[in-house]
């Protein structure tokens, strides 16, 4: 997808890569690399769950990690305990976990029956997974359930890793993994081209359900956009979290690039369908068909592959820009 000499000035002189068209951001190595040597869990491990409950874990032979964006499963595999994982949520899509049964068939809500059928020794969730009555039902059945507070930022990844590692009795492996992830993420941030700050709007699209949102401050997409040296158009327009997409709002945001998740793009009929949404064609990104998509289970995961994800996103966004 690389091209040169096709950048055209966008808002405030920012290159908008006119004529370069859409790009799919792909992580070079899509799988999770575990720390080595594999750790030996020190059990029992007693931790304070994110919901305020004290939980003791004395068996990690059958781990069930489920969270909104799939990062907990990434962390468990990164800690060298992937062989103990018995199931996954729909957001866990990396190759090593693809064979595992899904316990969130309806999206991100747990099915108590599906979980109990797998006979887990510990369940790890974040505060985006529920419903609460299912978590209470699992605990009443004697299953340790540890909730980890999720923070959709790159800076929040180390604390997430440490919380999971503590619950599984492998804090030393957690520190090794934190060091590696921080190093990879810092390297990816340093590699972002200097002096270029394209305005990038993240759109969350579910065309089959009629859901069209734009991300702003705290949506998670802003962290990824800023990590590659871009300006989050939603945040710059004063938006927070996710807001309904309006033609006026998107035109005022004036993105040079539109960032979407791959399944969301497909749900509106690809780039051809996207530019037909109200306001899209009237932006520099829409006029130039400057759309970057990335796999749903990758872009906003904030797990142990974060450095590689930032690198892949930067390559896709800047692939068409003139290096001079």
UniProtKB/TrEMBL annotation:
Coiled coil: none annotated. Residues 1-50 are annotated as: Disordered. InterPro entries: ABC_Transporter_SBP, ABC_transptr_periplasmic_BD. Residues 64-324 form the Fe/B12 periplasmic-binding domain. It holds the Pfam family Peripla_BP_2. Belongs to the bacterial solute-binding protein 8 family. PANTHER family: HEMIN-BINDING PERIPLASMIC PROTEIN HMUT (PTHR30535:SF4), VITAMIN B12-BINDING PROTEIN (PTHR30535). This is ABC transporter substrate-binding protein. It comes from Micromonospora aurantiaca (nom. illeg.).
